[in-house]
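User: Predict structure, ligand flavin-adenine dinucleotide.
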Amino acid sequence: MLPDRVSVLVAGGGASGFMTAIVAAEAGVADVHLLEATNEPLSKVRISGGGRCNVTHACWDPRSLVGHYPRGSKALRGPFARFASGDAVAWFADHGLQLVEEDDGRLFPISNSSASVVAALRQAARRAGVTLHTAAALQQVDRSPEGFNGRLRSGAAVQCRRLVLATGGHPSGRQLAAALGHGLVPPVPSLFSLALAGQPLLELAGVVMDPVDLELRLDPERVAQPRHRQSGALLITHRGLSGPALLRLTAFAARDLRATGYSADLRVNWAGSRSASQIEALLEQLRQQQARRQLGSWRPWPELSRRLWSHLLATAAIDPQLRWAELRRVQQQALVRGLTASTYRVAGRGPFGEEFVTAGGVDLGTINLATMESRLCPGLQVVGELLDIDGVTGGFNFQHCWTSGWLAGQALAAERAT
Ligand SMILES: Cc1cc2nc3c(=O)[nH]c(=O)nc-3n(C[C@H](O)[C@H](O)[C@H](O)COP(=O)(O)OP(=O)(O)OC[C@H]3O[C@@H](n4cnc5c(N)ncnc54)[C@H](O)[C@@H]3O)c2cc1C
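Assistant: Predicted complex:
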């Protein structure tokens, strides 16, 4: 049963809410209550990372870490200087959860199962004396002379001295923050794949090219930043394009894409960072050194997918049985264009990748990011995805939940000490 008067009320039993409550309670803050609207706390942790939970990323320098946040990058410099990926790894180790690094830098629990992250957080909360209430949704909140008066969806009333909003991307948290005077940056989706008009790459579904250079071109009349670029691995799917580089591209361009109704051109350099003149020189060399070989059987470089090469030959209307020596200049130029500047029309937003988040939320200008306390409403703290902060895939979204939760918990403890 939730008492009608508590000291600290944390609304939202996800990653950021648990971190806040545990850190505060471990530091000696008494009477910490964690409200979770559903019957299952930490449900996103459980489904995250395809059921494995990508807890954070092996990016140890806070200055590099901030580069993975399309929104909030600058603001996170201070918070990450105090609690970054290395601190999260150590914190989880102290709480019985060992993380292991994969080749691409992502960190997962050694069990390879998100269940152990959920178990570690729940156990830490229990041991620290946090009281968890499930099926307890905070629906309404007002300021009071002693702090806040809240009302749950069940109708129960609760008073608290300190309130932490940790409600993630759920609209209810945004409404509560707005009711307490906070400006909200409108939510838009981030981290999605792209659908291409006419599905020109359908026959290549399953092909991965790494690295490619991507350039998204948007209408300069409608957006402030009409060009977005990313490099890395690209995955061709049945629906269009996905993979780390593409998801990173859509994350950084999320607002601009939304502003144009997801209308854009995407230019792909399948040769990665190599320029058109470098590829032209390479093809010239092949014309001479592989003169008698057929184009279809001799790709310009070994990492170029066979299926993609056949596709590019067909797009340039070049017979794959043609010998390299027989390649005419005009055909060679068409191939250089196909290899380094294939342009596709974006038809809209495709499905989300494995991880998805909301860009937008509580305006960072209204939050003191050293304590996560509101500048407009003393006694209120805001943490996690509810803030206008989001990262690209790779563990960065949880990292800012651990960081903001840790800072909020520390601030609650510091306040108690004074
Ligand atoms: C499919 C998927 C996979 C993902 N995988 C990864 C990954 O591997 N790595 C990574 O870094 N990020 C991942 N993310 C993103 C990550 O899950 C989120 O960034 C993170 O969960 C946000 O944590 P949070 O605590 O702010 O919010 P949430 O995890 O959303 O938690 C908020 C909680 O508050 C509750 N709540 C909402 N309103 C109220 C209310 N009024 N009263 C009480 N409770 C309320 C909700 O029920 C919820 O349990 C993934 C996201 C998805 C959707």
